[in-house]
Amino acid sequence: KRLILIGPPGSGKGTQAPIIKDEHCLCHLATGDMLRAAVAAKTHLGIKAKEAMDKGELVSDDLVVGIIDEAIKKPSCQTGFILDGFPRTVVQAQKLDEMLQEQGVKINKVLNFAIDDTILEERITGRWIHLSSGRSYHTKFAPSKIPGADDVTGEPLIQRKDDTAAVLKSRLEAFHKQTEPVIDYYAKRGIVANLHAEKRPKEVTAEVEKVLSS
Ligand code: AP5
Ligand code: ZN
User: Fold this and answer.
1) Which ipTM value was assigned to this complex?
2) Which residues line ligand 1 (CB under 6 A)?
């Protein structure tokens, strides 16, 4: 399967992706996680991406298209993948179509994490992440079993620099202006499934499974 997860910041893409990945043996490609790793490692890519990310704006199409182009060619992604946070502009979606055409494959489903903007601030400001794996926790909705640390490795959790109420505003603006048109792009192909992303994590997982088994 080749899946795309689209939704505003805090809608649950990064929470559901690892579950879908394990269930369906897919590789999880999250451009946000890859960019944050590049920023932390101070690579050439990270240095270029940091300013836009800190402001809650989108990084340039060329940079992210380059990352995905490289990633989807990996042997581990040949049997299928989950794109989390990509494509986020119509230009990125068109470039993705070109890449997939070269490989003779196509996207099966686009999961649209539909949710009201008003719910997102509490989710975003309460989030703690494990940087190297991208795993998300939440002080209220998904606390770690080891206080202040990752459940799997025990390593410390951090808060994302862009997870403030002020930066969230810009991220939401970018979502509505630049990313919502991507949903229409795929809706024209009839491959978009709308999820009730305001529900509890387990209920969202059940909706995803229903869509993927149909
Ligand atoms: P990215 O990392 O992709 O951030 P985002 O899209 O803003 O999405 P989030 O990671 O904030 O939300 P999520 O849906 O994964 O939520 P999560 O599951 O963690 O991108 C960051 C930046 O990188 C961008 O701003 C941009 O600068 C750049 N970038 C990335 N990709 C790009 C691209 N393609 N083009 C250009 N620039 C790009 O959940 C959030 C919290 O809520 C967690 O604490 C979680 O525990 C909790 N939670 C999850 N589900 C539920 C639920 N059902 N009920 C209650 N709580 C829940
Ligand atoms: Zn995420």
Assistant:
1) 0.98
2) 7, 9-15, 31-32, 35, 52-53, 56-59, 64, 85-86, 88, 92, 123, 127, 136-138, 141-142, 162, 171, 200-201, 204
Q: For the chain, how many residues are written?
A: 214
Closest ligand relative to 31 C-alpha: 1
Instruction: In whole angstroms, give the CA distance from residue 161 to residue 201.
Output: 24
- The torsion defined by the Cα of 32, 187, 108 and 31, in degrees rounded to 10, comes to -10
What's residue 214's pLDDT? 84
Answer whether 0.95 is exceeded by the pTM. yes
Report the distance separating Cα 21 and Cα 30, nearest Å.
12
CB 130 within 8 A of CB 150: yes
